[in-house]
Amino acid sequence: MELSEHIKTANVEDVTLRRPFHPALRGTLCVTSHHLLFSDRKDEASWQLLILLKNIDAIEKRAVGSSGTITIKCKDLLVLQLEIPGMEECLNIASSIEALSSLESVTEMYPFFYRPSHLTLNGPWGLSSTEQYYKQTERLWDRWRVSTLNSDYSVCPSYPSAVIMPREVDDDKLIRSARFRQGGRFPVLSYCHHRNGMVIMRSSQPLTGANKKRCKEDELLLQAVIDGSELGYIIDLRSAQQAQQARMTGGGFESKSFYSHWKRIHRHHERGKVVQESLIKLVEACSDPSHSVDRWLSKLENSKWLSHVHSALSTAGLVVECVERDGHSVLVHGSEGTDNTLLVSSLAQLILDPASRTVTGFLCLLEREWIQAGHPFQQRCAHSAYSHARLKQECPIFLLLLDCVWQVWRQFPLALEFSEALLLRLAQEVYASNYGTFLCNSEQERCAAGVKENTHCLFQSLLRPDIEEQYLNPLYEPTDLAIWPSVHPQSLQLWTGLFLRWTEYAQNMEEAREEVWSIVKEHHEQAGPDRTNNTLSTHCDTLTPFENLMDELTIL
């Protein structure tokens, strides 16, 4: 079926558009295969609103006399209202939007049709690869190697074609280890610490089952990781009770008897539906201006969103403590190893690794730890907070990551090269994008669909000099030190720039924030190139004057 066949009415005149903070406009509404276009023509001037249909999360229809009203709720949390003359036209428009906003075929989505004049399909796609990371990390060269045993994705469908493994473990042992791990996600290297050579590994749960099965190759693999060290840590992102219950369904955990040099620590993280419903409750609280302050704070607390932020940052801090302070390697896993595992491992790297705090380094981190590592974006980001569809596999784990990074950025305004604007852009792109970066659920699926050959890469576009400048932090001062974010309740705040971005509060805050940043930037520049880096504390309980200023602004 051609996409155009879903369009029952292509154009409607005299449509009234209502949107936050703007007067109502009357104009023409057009529906195309991938966009909703509203044009307001007054005299010779023309104003247009273009919405990617993939960005629409839900629509609500109601009759008003002989006309109809469509309320459009977008995945970036924007809510619009269209008043359409003629009920038939209204129903046709609504039907077209519903069909075209929920396309399931990847090759029918807009990134396969997006052809901007300033980009070509012939250039490189992506920023880094496993091989590049290995070449750049000299500490890996003696004891580690790049394995291409998954080049055809037969060993693990959700892993990339190449992974970094201990040199003394051959590919046959890796294959046996993969059979012992859920989804074939055997332990692979995620990060090597630049100072002490300790590593962060990630995997899925072992399939020990009720009979407490073992796999000697998996045990040898983990023993090779610590290479004679006294101890390694396994951070299991489930409670001890959940890990025990997993054995009844074929899953399980690493036994002390067989992994004697590894100490297991349990840190419970919510998954899937629980986190998705938490986002829904949070957005519901933020979208209703009628609540009193007490009522609003109660709904915010009941959403438990900030509890998920706390859990993620707290566990990432534990991983960093094991690697940085105690000098031990760490294996992180939950059940599947495609969600919370990636969240914790990438946050730990942001805290540990100064390279990950640059614009390029952060995007490379996302590419390596989320896109190449097999986070199922298409499943997790099928809907946002407004959809009326029954929840399937949606879960805003990547959005939770961005929120955690924002918390770090707010606590350490000098430590990250990028600003909040980059995080907001990524939060929008992951749900609806012109680019192919977040399409599909794995590298295998992207290869099968021809994503790299037929779409443009978001990250490369963001690094174009004229674009990257929009996302730079004017206060950035590099430091080789680890940064330790505070997870005290008073230190974690609602990300107003995202969750209140379409409210009057956010509009006023944005103006005030721009004024504050201009003052801070001016002060920063006057300090001159010889200023010291003493203001950048590696512990959050010592805030800089800039952080105090931003905290005061946040309280307003």
UniProtKB/TrEMBL annotation:
The UniProt GO MF terms for this protein read: protein phosphatase binding
Q: Which InterPro entries match?
A: Myotubularin, Myotubularin-like_Pase_dom, PH-GRAM_MTMR6-9, PH-like_dom_sf, Prot-tyrosine_phosphatase-like
What PROSITE patterns has UniProt attached to this entry?
PPASE_MYOTUBULARIN
**What SUPFAM superfamilies does UniProt report for this protein, alphabetically?**
(Phosphotyrosine protein) phosphatases II, PH domain-like
Q: Which CDD domains does its entry note?
A: PH-GRAM_MTMR9, PTP-MTMR9
Pfam families listed in its UniProt record: Myotub-related (PF06602), PH-GRAM_MTMR6-like (PF21098)
- The record places domain Myotubularin phosphatase at 124-499
Q: Name one GO biological process term.
A: phosphatidylinositol dephosphorylation
Give the UniProt family note: Belongs to the protein-tyrosine phosphatase family. Non-receptor class myotubularin subfamily.
Its name, as the record gives it, is Myotubularin-related protein 9-like
Which species expresses this protein natively? Sinocyclocheilus grahami (Dianchi golden-line fish)
The primary gene name is LOC107582969
